[in-house]
Amino acid sequence: MGVKRHILTDGNGIPLAITLSGANVHDKRNVKDTLNSILV
Fold it and tell me: Which listed residue, of 18, 21, 39, 40, carries a Cα 20 to 30 Å from 11's Cα?
């Protein structure tokens, strides 16, 4: 078992959102959570 870090950054590499998921979870399942966690 492992963990994936999903990190969304702006054009300068500044992190906008970070979420975690299990290594056995497909990436497309975490896209919505990552996008919804952006702090503006």
Answer: 21
- Residue extents of the structural domains in the chain: 3-36
Q: What is the pLDDT of residue 4?
A: 95
- Cβ–Cβ < 8 Å for 22, 4: yes
Give the integer Cα–Cα distance in Å for 40 and 28. Answer: 23
Residues 6+ apart with CB under 8 A from 24: 1
Confirm if 18 and 6 have CB atoms less than 8 A apart.
yes
